[in-house]
Amino acid sequence: MENLLLRKKHEILCFDMRNPRNEKEMERLSRIGEFQTFWGDITDPDIVAQAVEGQGCILHLAAIIPPLTEQSPDLAHRVNVEGTHNVIEAAKQQEKSPKMVFTSSISVHGNRFSEPLPRRADEPPQPTDNYTHSKVASEKESMESGIDWTILRVGAAAPVNVLGSDSLGLGSLEYSFGIPLEQRMEVVHPVDVATAIANSVEADTAGKIPLLGGGKSCQMTNRHFQTKLFEALGIGMVCEKAFRVPKDESDYWYTDFMDTEESQRLLKFQHHTFDHYIDDLKRAFGWRRIFTSAFSPIIRRWLMRYSPYYKTS
Prior knowledge:
single chain
């Protein structure tokens, strides 16, 4: 996203926590263009106020996501709810309040598996866990803040570089097995999400809640998504018994198809299909597919050890 913003010739200040990973990323991006870096913690209101001072637009992406939100609810509340409160309060103190673009999630819509499609921004949220409750609380405070707000509800934005993310962590693996294979989801390429966020700086989105999904070509069941994902990694689809089999409506998850017509009109971000995502995933995984393909039966058995559903089936 920083690359997209640099191309638009914005003056950029990046606010993040200082650690080796973020320092390395800062050095990489510094070779692309010029920007300022402000190290700090979103839970510190004084530091946040210093970072926000004089800014014309705030792109607020900081958040704790599942499964960590469910494992550490206090941390999730401090970062997701109190951190957002600090950003909003800092914006309100400016002589001219900046526009704030808050990244939320399609998950705030909750489980609507039996309801007519698609999900729309004007539907009332139905939070179901720590993560979605924190997002709904921050959405509500944003709407009531009196500042120029935009809320982006992002669909299933799976990373392309799985080795550089937390997606292969065992906690995330167990979490993903809890999503029924019949679950509807709308994938969106992370580059398209970045494009939407970058375009939101200048787009006429004040007081709007654009839904960020990939469009018709990115709408599928979790079975299709998981099959293509494991094939792209050279592993092959794991046994379907590893996934939760829903006993009733409450066992379904909180992704779904989305109405993105207005979002696309405003933000012009849908440039990648699901096939593009799979091709990019293969390229990012690269030579490792030779290894995973050769040992795929062993890897599949190892992965299924982390499914609570497979163990009890």
